[in-house]
Write a structure and sequence with these properties.
homodimer, alpha+beta, four-stranded mixed sheet, two-stranded antiparallel sheet, 3 helices, globular
Chain lengths: ~160, ~160
């Protein structure tokens, strides 16, 4: 390559991708990488979110978690509205560099989920009973904030609100 | 609908999906759901994998983790070749039912990654330094099995092999 035109690097070998120290994120066809977000304090999985290149760059630069909102189709600094920000404690890539693991310290009410709960994974599936008419069990129903107050939209009040009087 | 023809159920309301007890997994356009796999023993993230409907059904029925291999384009019972099976301890769905969290007990060498390591997330990204020429650091280099012996293909020997004499 003798031009200075911006071009993609040549496809890396599997051994380089898996065993090298060069970061070569493999975004999917929508330009996104799935990101597993866990609590640095407890280790629990808080959510699965997605980063595009810009969200990843900003997260790496600022140390504050930013994502790509697939529903709103825009960059999203976690906690920008709710105050439930996420400070990056550690960010890892996986073997084939098509997924990230983000360990965070939460701010605000320490509620990751837009329903007001700490984790987005608050319901459990039964094992050993097949899949016909699977009934979910709530493992975590308590809300740490009221989504109606924070986002201005109501959610069916299945869970109890911690601060509810 | 008066016919007995198999048809999709009507789109569920957000409140039902988020606050209900009916399991209504939202597979992506490729018919897949991302699955965060963690160790029940330590809580660490082992890998991010994908399930199609069949893999999910078999996992729910048998209590042994099965996935859809995107690279091999086939159903994949975890550990079928390596012996590093995964017994389901708990399976959760997230708020909008488009991601799963699977907590497992590993069998065999307790190495989830095909590179022989315990977790697929063995390299760390630096924070606060931007993204130009990002250099990864190995957080976990030790291999619990030799991928060449198990799978018959070599990997660059960056990590040390635990059982290497």
């Amino acid at each position: 390559m003798t031009t200075s035109k911006k071009s993609s690097p040549p496809p890396a070998q599997a051994a380089d991708i898996e065993e090298g120290t060069a970061f070569a994120p493999k975004f999917d066809s929508d330009g996104l990488l799935p990101v597993v977000v866990t609590s640095a304090a407890t280790g629990e999985v808080l959510m699965l979110a997605y980063m595009n290149e810009q969200a990843l760059t900003r997260t790496l630069e600022t140390g504050q978690a930013q994502f790509w909102s697939r529903s709103r189709k825009r960059l999203w600094r976690k906690g920008e509205k709710s105050g439930n920000t996420m400070r990056v404690v550690e960010l890892r890539t996986d073997c084939d560099q098509d997924a990230l693991w983000l360990s965070v310290e939460m701010g605000g009410a320490e509620a990751c989920c837009h329903t007001g709960r700490r984790s987005c994974f608050y319901r459990v599936l039964p094992i050993g009973k097949g899949t016909a008419g699977v009934t979910l069990t709530f493992a975590e129903a308590e809300r740490l904030f009221d989504p109606k107050t924070v986002y201005g939209h109501a959610r069916a009040a299945k869970g109890t609100l911690k601060t509810q009087g």
